[in-house]
UniProtKB/TrEMBL annotation:
Protein name in UniProt: Guanylate kinase 1
Keywords: ATP-binding, Kinase, Nucleotide-binding, Transferase
Enzyme Commission number(s): 2.7.4.8
Gene name per UniProt: AGK2
GO-annotated molecular function: ATP binding; GMP kinase activity
Catalysed reaction equations from the record: GMP + ATP = GDP + ADP
Length: 391
């Protein structure tokens, strides 16, 4: 265990003794997490952050299935073993909002995927500085007005919210656009992606498959927006059980008769589908209003009234809240990170060091999804001499 500093190929000759061959341009970092496992991150020929595993017990290379949104190619990187579960990978020549990535090698998610897929698996999770606002999960029976409420929210606060575009095997409605309302998919392709660990959650609803891909949520987070998920009760339960911390809101109709009226008035479903949706609505209403799953239940009687209540519980009344962007720190190609407790002491640049401390003390989440709660602190001078590292 310990830290492996960033190194470029010229410096790597000494690492040949580790049993791997390094030549031409590129950057590789080898980290030993114990258990006879050496993880090699990077590629000698390119700037990609590929991952392979050297099994010291068999002297063989293993090429794992890599899950999660992968970091972009990187001009140099360093890797710090955090524990037997995770490696922190710091990309060079980046700013801090895309610089810190967690390679999960033994977390609960990865262990489950290894058992399921019967092979070596690793997963990437991007480290997010600060406390982003929680995604919002909105559920409720078909025709209750989820889409209408979400559309109003997105229209009034376009820079604040982003919609998680689900995948579905159902056919598009006349007014629906692929990639905007849903990613309309073939069942086989979607099942393959689910097996490949690309989905945060999925469920069979009204006879079709629906699911939220990790990427759908990431795309919204990438834009710095708060993610809204319109998913069914089963999906909400899966998200509750996942690493994604969210606010869960269930929308109820004022009556069953009114629900049927709205569903029919929308005119998007054939009679058979309307019947199926109404049958399912009974169970959804029962589950949605039972204690424990949803944080808030809103009755969508009068639309404006319900929308106002939604805004109140999201803290959107009076002022438009903007999340302060944490100050970005530049991580140069040349840098090193040293783990001390739950902090990573960062030393950047060759001579005049830019220094900062990355605090992992309150990180949460992880693959599938983001690792949140990273903090960047300025270095306090006494640390230098005490640690004998930065000076
Ligand atoms: N679990 C899950 N449910 C979804 C997802 N996307 C949509 N749904 C739910 O699937 C159900 C049917 O959606 P849709 O066919 O668009 O019909 P609508 O509810 O009548 O608008 C609704 O309850 C949605 O909330 C998803 O990604 N995951
Ligand atoms: N509070 C409301 N009162 C009356 N009609 C409503 C209300 N909210 C939504 N609607 C209408 O009900 C229909 C179903 O709403 P929609 O947003 O598509 O539901 P969902 O997304 O939950 O399936 C739409 O035609 C919509 O205009």
């Amino acid at each position: 265990m310990g830290e492996a500093p960033a190194f470029l190929v010229e410096d790597l000759k000494s690492n040949l003794s580790n049993g791997f061959h390094l030549k031409s341009k590129g950057c590789e970092t080898a980290v030993d997490i114990g258990c006879n496992r050496m993880y090699v991150i990077g590629d000698p020929k390119s700037e990609s952050l590929a991952v392979r595993v050297f099994d010291k017990s068999t002297n063989e290379w293993v090429f794992p299935i890599v899950l999660g949104t992968k970091p972009k190619a990187s001009r140099g990187h360093s890797a710090v073993v955090l524990d037997q579960d995770r490696v922190l990978v710091i990309r060079g020549d980046t700013s801090s909002d895309d610089g810190f990535w967690f390679l999960e090698v033994n977390t609960v998610f990865v262990t489950e995927q290894k058992a399921r897929l019967g092979t070596e698996v690793v997963a990437w999770s991007k480290g997010v500085i600060g406390e982003p606002e929680k995604p919002i999960v909105i559920s409720g029976p078909s025709g209750v007005g989820k889409g209408t409420l979400i559309a109003k929210l997105m229209e009034e606060f376009p820079s604040m919210f982003g919609f998680s575009v689900s995948h579905t095997t159902r056919a598009p409605r006349n007014n629906e656009q692929n990639g905007v309302h849903y990613h309309f998919s073939e069942r086989g392709a979607m099942e393959k992606d689910i097996d490949g660990g690309k989905f945060l959650e999925f469920a069979a609803v009204h006879g079709n498959l629906y699911g939220t891909s990790v990427e759908a949520v990431d795309v919204v987070a990438e834009k710095g927006k708060r993610c809204i998920l319109d998913i069914d009760v089963q999906g909400a339960r899966s998200v509750r059980a996942s690493s994604l911390e969210a606010i869960f809101i269930f929308i109820c109709p004022p009556s069953f008769e009114e629900l049927e009226k709205r569903l029919r008035a929308r005119g998007t479903e054939v009679e058979e589908q309307i019947q199926k949706r109404l049958r399912n609505a009974k169970a959804e209403l029962e589950q949605g209003t039972s204690p424990g799953l949803f944080d808030h239940i809103l009755v969508n009687d009068d639309l404006e009234n319900c929308y106002d209540k939604l805004k109140v519980l999201l803290g959107l009344t009076n002022t438009v809240k903007t999340t302060p962007k944490s100050e970005l720190v530049h991580v140069p190609v040349e840098h090193t990170g040293l783990k001390i407790g739950e902090k990573i002491m960062m030393k950047c640049g060759a001579v005049e060091q830019e220094r900062f401390v990355l605090d992992l003390g309150s990180i949460r989440g992880g693959a599938p999804g983001r690792t949140r709660g990273l903090r960047i602190d300025a270095v306090e001078e006494p640390c230098d001499s005490e640690l004998g590292f930065l000076g």
